[in-house]
Each structure stands twice: as C-alpha cells, then as structure tokens.
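WARN retry 2 of 3 for item q-0093 after timeout on previous attempt; input resubmitted unchanged.
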Amino acid sequence: MNNRIGLMLSARPDMKYSSQILRSPLVLGARMNTGAPVTGSKVSAVRGFRHMLEPKQAWIDLKCRELRLVETATIPGDRLELNHSISVRTPTAVYYNDGAGVLVVDRVEEGRFLVIRPPKMQTEGGSLTLGKGASLNIPDNTLHVDGFLTESDIEYIEACVEADLHNYLLSFVESRADLKQLRDLDPLANVILKVESKRGLRFVAEDFDPVRDRATLLLARGDLFVELDYVHQILGAARDLIARDPNAIAASRLLLSFMREDSMPSCADVFDVGYLLEIGYRQFLLGDEVCTDETTLSSVIGFFSALEKDYFSARKA
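OK item q-0093 returned
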C-alpha cells in the first residue's frame, strides 16, 4: 500500500500561497472555491490561480447541485431563495451552518423559495440571519433538485477551456449523467467527484466503474454527515468509498483544532486522521478554515509530514 501522503489545499480566487507552502512535497495542488466572488473575468481568475500554483495542480471546484442562498435572508420574515428549483414533500427540515442549525420548511413557493415555519426564537424576540451564498442541506428522500450545473458553473467551465485548464471538482454528484454534462462542455475534463448524499453513495456502489478511468472519488464528510439517516453511517461510507477507489480523497473539517491559539491538534482530531489512514486514505483535501491563515496551514502541513515519517515506519516495525 502507498505510504505517501498528499494534500490538496483550498483557496479563494484572490488568495496567494507563499513559496514555502508550495515547496512542501506533500502539497499536490489546490482547489479554487468558486462560491467566492472574483474581481474581473472568470478567465483571468482561472489563469491567475493556475499561475500562482505552478508547478502544482490547480483544480476548479464547481458548486453544481449544492443548495445555496441567492440573497441574505433573516428569519422570521424572509423566504429563503435557493440557487436551484426544487420539489420536496413538506413540512421538512433544512439544515444550515454545516448541520449545526435546523429550520422547518412549511412549503416551497415558485419552485425555489422556502417558506420557513416561525422558529421558537420568534417568541423570544430573536432572529436569525443567513448570508448570501450560505450552504443548505435538505436530507429528505423526496427532494428533487432541478438541473445540475449552475450558470456560474458553466461560465467557469468555459473559462477553464479558454485557459487550457481541465481539472474540476463536481459537488453532489449522483449519476453518470452529471459527469456527462461536464464532459459535453469540456471533453478533456479530469474530474474529482464529491460524494455528499445518499444518492451519491448509491452511484458509487452501482455505477462508478464505467467512469473510474478519468475520475477520482472524494469523501465530502461535512455534507454527507448531515445527509445520512444516522450519524454512525459516515464510518461505513468512508470505508465504501476507499474500497471502490484506492485513490479516493478524504475531506471536510480536518484538523480544525489547529485553529486554536496554541496551534495544537486535539486528541480527537489526531484519531480522526488516524482512522482515515487505517482504512486506506492517503490523500486529503484541507478546508478553507485551515488554509486561510498561513501559520495554521504550515502547522497542519508539518503535522502530516511528521505523521508520514513516523506513522508508517512504526507500522513496519
């Protein structure tokens, strides 16, 4: 089994990494978060991002089926406007803030406006504001999201083709048809498929083989954890993905304890990474949280470097 660890970083379009970060042999490249605003054209943003990372790999993270808020909304009072039209049986739950908060959807109006049941905080005189672009989860089996690629996704794909960059991450992939939509626009596309839902897991189990030659799986643990019926099912999902793709990438909420003032990882975070290593993961996508601050990021890279050296040598002994 491969004993080399590889890291993919996360970045906004305008972020710059120092040469010290990019010199690390563990850093394979970075993904650009297309949910962040860009200054100028998307073509310029893609070219600048690739140039900043050279000779490391640049990847463009498309949002696809991921549900996001089009405008800032305050509850109670505002409807939540989604970036996709949906249908779902109501009432149902909608989760925000990586599953930390939940609201009840009373009904869907005009296909994309969620009418939220007045939460308990209303009787207590409180309110909740969700920002533009906030990610939402509706883990209901009756949910249907119209369309896959957003208008912004298509603009980014066209920009990548013009810039001769063909590396993409696709969010909430649930079928081969999703991948076909990308390759109809960019036949040269190299793709990382983010598995973030129960339908995504079903696709991996039943229909991944025909596309595995030009696609890599990514365990997007944050959204998938919220989407599953029971929290313990995330463990089996992690095993299933690495069994289907030995090069699968593990992502979401890795080593967030490094963001504390002492920059020391918690015991739970160390065991978290250790479990992923034990079941076969060797590639990791670091989230925006730990990549924004270079001091934190350097500490995380140092941790993985020491882990690669000591963990595998201890196993051999």
